[in-house]
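Incident log, structure service

09:12 report received: a user says their structure output differs between two submissions of the same chain.
09:20 pulled the input from the user's history:
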Amino acid sequence: MPPFGWIAVGIVAVALLVVVSRRLGRGAGIRAAVIEEVRRTLREGTLERSGSSAQVRGRLGPLEVTVDLQNDVRRPRQSPMWRVTAEGPVGLEHPIEARVAGWEGWIDPWMQLAESLSVPGNGGPPLTLHADRPPSAGHPLVAALQRQGERLGPGAIHLRHDLIRVETRCSARLEENRPLFAYLHVVGEMAELPPLRSRSAGPPSPRYGVLPEG
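09:34 re-ran on a clean worker, output below:
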């Protein structure tokens, strides 16, 4: 190859590196901006870093909330994804999982065996409910999701008596991370459900249930 050919190849390679670096830098900046806004959204929100990763811990009502970023090689279309884990009392007797706008994958794989119900989004994306009892369109989770309307995006939310989990996609565009905050709002509403008035002796053993990751 003539010398000017190598020069041209080098110029193209450098240009590509610059473009990739800018995109990666912009993506990291957007994730940092979202994480900071989450910290401000949660009560007593604190930012924790471990190497290149970061997570936010705080509270929504009685729930202790952690928000971090995850990759799942089994679901490249959903990755990277924001993950919300909220631990504490939730005023629900039976587990339920809702998948929004065709979200792929399950927070609790047992829910694949559960009863299902499709619900219109009421101005937002459609929902599919999964529960070990026939789910109802009048469930408080449905009302909370529908109140978010078009602010919702593809994602999933799982609730049981002591845990709420959320998954929604992380985007390289700042405005496309808006669904994370819509789901946090739903988590806050679920945290305000009145406590169950009575429980049987001993810890409940739901037919379906997802364990928090330790």
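09:41 both user submissions now match this output. Likely a transient worker issue. Closing.
09:42 reviewer note: The beta strands are 43-50, 53-60, 63-70, 81-87, 96-100, 115-119, 127-131, 155-160, 163-169. The two ends are 57 Å apart (CA to CA).
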